[in-house]
Amino acid sequence: MKREIRITPSILNADLNNLDTEIAKIANVSDLIHLDVMDNLFVPNFTFDFESATSIIKNCPIDVDAHLMVAEVDSIAPMYAQAGCASVTIHAEATKEIANTLRSIRNEGARAGLAIKPNTAIEEYEQFSDLVDMFLIMTVEPGFGGQKFMANMMDKVRTTRSFIGDRPIWLQVDGGISLETIEMAMEAGADTFVAGSAVFKAQDPAAMVTSLRQLAMGVAN
Ligand code: DX5
Ligand code: ZN
């Protein structure tokens, strides 16, 4: 089966004072914009409150993929779906009502994503596959951009790919994706790639998105 590939640049390390310009640089060549929401509780960093996130979502010219690294995710996730995100991802470590929250994201019309941190095993979450539109395997400890890709997460990506099988569930990797690492993640079975610093620290962010896509497609074909 030919795998569809998606590149989802993270704006975490973009110039947040000129976000419209930053997003405009890559919108035409990207599949979704990855929005990292951090509350300084679930992770030791803060990015956006709901109000500023909503304004980014409303102004974004392409679909938004929200990655919620927040403690109170069960109440917050449906709000992000309502605000117009195409995809809303919750962390397995943060939710107390995993099935309900995944369902409520879908009920609000968004795709439901389930993320796990590097020290969390994927096996016990296979049972939620019917409620999940995307699994996110973190390839860094969540909290900050610019960290080193954890190649030892590739076994987890392979396990997830094997239980997804032919189902149309996306498999995302997030953290340290670059020209050096994207092929490894692709070979392991990922199809949806977050890239933050690799894209926004590049001279030409759009060209970088295209290069990343071409590399991943080289593995696919
Ligand atoms: C980390 C975030 C990532 C991060 C990716 O907690 O979830 O999305 O911004 O940035 P890079 O690609 O620089 O690792
Ligand atoms: Zn992220």
Distance, first to last CA: 10 Å
Low-pLDDT residue intervals, each spanning 5 or more residues: none
**Apparent shape:** globular
Largest sheet: 8 strands, parallel
**Spatial strand sequence of the major β-sheet:** 1-8-7-6-5-4-3-2
Helix content: 25-40%
Report the C-alpha radius of gyration, rounded: 16 Å
Which class best fits the helix and strand makeup? Answer: alpha/beta
Proportion of strand residues: 15-25%
Mean pLDDT: 97
What would you note in describing this structure?
This protein is an alpha/beta fold and 221 residues long. It has a single domain, classed as Aldolase class I (TIM Barrel, Alpha-Beta Barrel). The chain is 34% helix and 19% strand. It has helices at 19-26, 50-59, 73-82, 98-107, 154-164, 182-188, 197-200, 205-220, and strands at residues 6-9, 33-38, 64-69, 87-91, 111-116, 134-138, 170-174, 192-195. It has an 8-stranded parallel sheet. The chain is globular and about 45 Å long. D-xylitol-5-phosphate binds next to strand 2, strand 8 and helix 7. The site of D-xylitol-5-phosphate (DX5) has 21 residues, from strand 2, strand 8 and helix 7.
Set down the secondary structure blueprint.
Elements: E1 6-9, H1 19-26, E2 33-38, H2 50-59, E3 64-69, H3 73-82, E4 87-91, H4 98-107, E5 111-116, E6 134-138, H5 154-164, E7 170-174, H6 182-188, E8 192-195, H7 197-200, H8 205-220
Parallel strand pairs: 1-8, 2-3, 3-4, 4-5, 5-6, 6-7, 7-8
Helix pairs in contact: 3-4, 6-8
The structure holds D-xylitol-5-phosphate (DX5) and zinc ion.
Zinc ion binds next to strand 2.
